[in-house]
Amino acid sequence: MTLTLQIVQFVLIISILVILHEMGHFFPAKYFKTKVEKFYLFFDVKFSLFKKKIGDTEYGIGWLPLGGYVKIAGMIDESMDTEQMKQEPQPWEFRSKPAWQRLIIMTGGVIVNFLLAWVIYTVLLFSNGDTYIPSDSLKYGIVVDSIGEQLGLRTGDQILMVDDKKTRKFNEAVLDIILGDEVTVKRDGREITVPLSDEGKETVFATQGKNFLGYRSKAIIAKVQPNSVAEKAGLMPGDEIKGVNGVDTQYWDEFRSKIGASANQKLDISVLRNGSTEHLELTVPDEGIIGIELDLTDLRVTDNYNFLEAIPAGFKRTIQVLTDQIRQFKVIFNTKTGAYKQVKGPIGIVELMSPTWDWVYFFNFMAMFSVWLAFLNILPIPALDGGHVMFLLYEIISGRKPSEKVLETGQIIGFVILMGLMAVVFGNDIWNIIKKFL
To answer: What membrane topology term does the record carry (predicted)?
Structure first.
């Protein structure tokens, strides 16, 4: 059921983004009186699941869920319909329109993707505010595992800067560390700068970064699961765990580590409740989970925005997401980090979806993915929107159109590049699935 829900969310997000992206091409084309022959969600290789012609345009749904397209008359695109290009240009064809109109048509999809992300982030900030954990004022510092230690970090460190830039939010600091060259921390009262090695990053990516860096917090209980080991032992929301078997246990990571290493053992848990200390006994089950959730109230901060404030804040968030995505290529193309092995395709992305239906997560993911699609589509690779834009800019600057032969060759080269990238991405997905069963 969980996997089904994740697939449904992913397909719904992709469908919405593809339709809106293609509308970004469709409406400018119609406005400039350019004939649009097809408007498709997914690709209709050989056949389509649904199609209906309205006016000059055939609307349909293909069977191959790898995107979508609009086929514009008089344009060399992925359909490679060269027969049409051999005919005399018609006034309603793409090739007959002024270069500036063609440029607007080709950039329309990317613009819609960017604007959609801006709108989503604006609405989310206005309705929910921005809740985060500050990285520069963590009360108890960070907590790292052996992978984090390999990067040069230590539990209790306080992150001050990454690459001489202050990081305001903890989740941004984590990304900055993965993408950065050095981090400045406060350790034992001293400021020290730790170089971030490619070898350490390789380990982070090889393990998909699980738990290599977290934030330290007091072991205060927010919620106790019904019928859990914790509830049966008498633990309650608001309890602050102070020790296990007489050993001082101040922090959540210390308590979690003790629980995880004590399967089938009886533990004496000392808790601070209403100003007094109480002792409770419980036996840790095989899976090492006792059924409590952590209270992070003392660490979280929420910035609230009115609507006018949310608009520029939403724009800033969109730009930040775009910038972070561009920066990721720094480590992806650095073969020493092994980050390229973790690039995810549709199969891997499905696993990132929420196992429950969470509208905030849904729209946050949609906005992030919308920015990602905008960035990928504007890359100057023939067969992508950016490839068409590249040739159009050449035409506008030089005053000469590229020959149809050049456009056709570029389209073929771009198609081969994209197929190669897709093969790598799907190969990573399949290999990661296989590794789970090895």
So the answer is: Multi-pass membrane protein
The burial of 173, by beta-carbon neighbours within 10 Å (0-12 exposed, 13-18 middle, 19 or more buried), is given as buried
Please check whether residue 42 lies inside any domain of the structure. Answer: yes
Token pair, residue 24, equals 């970004």
Based on the fold, state whether residues 69 and 160 are members of the same structural domain: no
Look at residues 303, 326, 342 and tell me which one is the last residue of a structural domain. Answer: 303
Residue with tokens 């800019």: 393
pLDDT of res. 437: 44
Cβ atoms < 10 Å from Cβ of 433: 12
pLDDT score for 88: 77
Do 374 and 429 reside in the same domain of the chain? yes
pTM: 0.80
- Residues 45, 167, single domain; the answer is no
Residues 163 and 53 in one domain: no
Q: In sequence order, which ranges of 70-192 are alpha helices (DSSP H)?
A: 82-85, 99-128, 146-150, 170-179
The CATH number of residue 290's host domain is 2.30.42.10
Distance CA 7, CA 88 (A): 46
**260 contacts 226 by C-beta, under 8 angstroms:** no
Residues of the domain holding 243: 220-295
The DSSP secondary-structure symbol of 219 reads: -
Task: Enumerate residues 6+ apart whose C-beta is below 8 A from 126.
Answer: 305, 306, 307, 310
The whole-number pLDDT of residue 335 equals: 60
CB 9 within 8 Å of CB 31:
no
pLDDT for the residue numbered 438: 46
* Whole-number pLDDT of residue 135: 79
Looking at the chain, the number of H-run helices and the number of E-run strands are 13, 16
Q: Is residue 277 included in any domain, yes or no?
A: yes
The whole-number mean pLDDT for each consecutive block of 10 residues of the chain, a chain of 438 residues, reads 82 93 95 93 87 91 86 74 69 89 94 97 95 79 83 86 83 80 87 82 66 82 88 89 88 86 87 88 85 80 92 95 80 60 62 81 92 89 85 86 77 73 58 49
Buried-state track 376-409, b at ≥16 Cβ within 10 A, e below 16: bbbeebbbbbbbbbbbbeeeeeeeeebeeeebee
Whether residues 237 and 160 share a domain: the answer is no
Residue 110 falls inside a structural domain: yes
pLDDT per residue over 215-253, tens digit each? Answer: 888 888 888 889 888 888 888 998 898 988 888 888 888
